[in-house]
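My current task is to audit a protein record that another person submitted. Please read both lines and tell me whether the tokens look consistent with the sequence. Do not assume that whoever made the record got everything right. I have pasted the whole thing underneath without changing anything:

===
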Amino acid sequence: MTRLLVLALLVGCGGNSTAPVVRRGPGPTVDDARRDGPAGFPIQAPFARPGEVMSYRLSMLDLEVAAYTFAVGQPTQLAGHDVVVVQSGVQTTGIAGLLRTVSDNFTSWIDAATTQPVLFRADELASKHDATIERTDAEVSALVDGAFPVRVTRPDLGEVVESQVTSDAPLYDLNGFLLVLRSWEAEPGTTVTADVIRSRYIWRTDVTMVGYESVRTELGEVGTLKIEGSSRRVRRDGTIDPTSDTRTYALWISDDADRVPVLMIAHTDYGDLRMELVAYASGS
């Protein structure tokens, strides 16, 4: 079930409560990030700062099932690009941790000028029926003729490289897409399409700006911008997989200078899965 929320990001109470820790400091604002650009998402630097950390509780049917962390590292270089390193991960907790341990981790090397992916790496369980930890590298920096290699490595089967065809939609990875949504400014009702890399596959993702909404979270009543989204898996040839379920979700981002995602609800066959911010450090 925790995997469904990560899929929905293409970015519900049980257990012990964690008091929110909020530390603010200087950093980018929405006005800094906003630039003139084509319809959709403008091409701009990532809306993030080194040392920024967001911690979330995941719950379903009022039971805590996992913790999710999103952290921004230091600038560096990779494949000739100036990049920002972002890591996120989900770990089962509470009763879900007793049933099965899940610890999936996602690392992005994101272009420091465009927020587009250079390399996206996933270390995670192969599937719900296969407990093998496999590594997937989406090597977008090696894009040639509209396709890039996806390298999957398993300790039992070795390495397999497949070619992923892209489309005309803007391409982001799981972590980078959340940064894009943080700075997105649009009129209510506006819908934008993007392709989002998550592990082995791309997910064709439509997001719609709903508009201002006040929500109650661990941090109290928060003024937010609500975004609704849906995603479907893309095949290696760049077309929608007709066998793919549609993943739907809603995301609430604080309507202030920090633009922090404070709440996300993913709709699943098992009920709504809720991801709620419990701690935030703004970095420097």
